[in-house]
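Q: what does this look like with copper (II) ion bound?
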Amino acid sequence: MNFSYGVIGIVGVLAAITIGFIAMDPTGIIEPRIVAEEKPVACTMQWDPMCGVDGVTYGNMCMLNAADKKLDYSGECVTDSKSNMKPCTKDYRPVCGVDGKTYGNMCTLESSGISFDYEGECIVVQPKVEPKVEPKVEPKVEPKVEPKVEPKVEPKVEPLPMTAIVSVPAGSAVPGCDDTNECYLPYETNVAKGATVSWINDDSAAHTVTSGLPGTPDGVFDSSLFMAGAVYEFTFDDAGTYDYYCMVHPWMTGIVNVN
Ligand SMILES: [Cu+2]
């Protein structure tokens, strides 16, 4: 009996200790087991490659997620060939790249992605130095001395005369003087406004000085018949062109211009 009690007692103490331990260990009860949380993932084998941040290509998004990796980018991971290259040695066997730069050896050239041009250091072509051309010294050009230009002297416009004399020449009573416009001399007379024109009968016959055209006197002036040696005068107060003729000898014509 004593033994039984003893066993019970020991068991009870052990149980109490166990319970106590369990109660004291917060993780034992509270923390759920992570493994139990993981769900078995069934991904399809569909090929829709995704590159994870770990640089590994996953068959599709599901596989990426199943691997608990984050997506870097869609598609297969692009491997950088350069980074995969073996490090180049430092031995100097120069080669020249097509970029005109000298590379220590073929390895460094290739790793630079530059095509090979030729062996050895690049031959640097010195830029041609143009010989200095002395600036041509132009002979001093004396300033051209322009010949003094005399101010253009405008031809003095002779003021129109205030008087004029017209002759009725001898023989004008006979037709023919009109062929050369010499029935009144001069045939055309230019005078200023307000000028007085005098007609002198130098012929032996009597004549007239009548304004207008032969047959149609306009009444501006008319000498009526004036004898040999006589003078007829008329003052022109208005500018204009005045035709005149002889009423006796209609071939006789003349003009007075008044300005
Ligand atoms: Cu006449």
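Residues 173, 207, 246, 248-249, 252 surround copper (II) ion (CB under 6 Å). The chain is about 20% helix and 25% strand.
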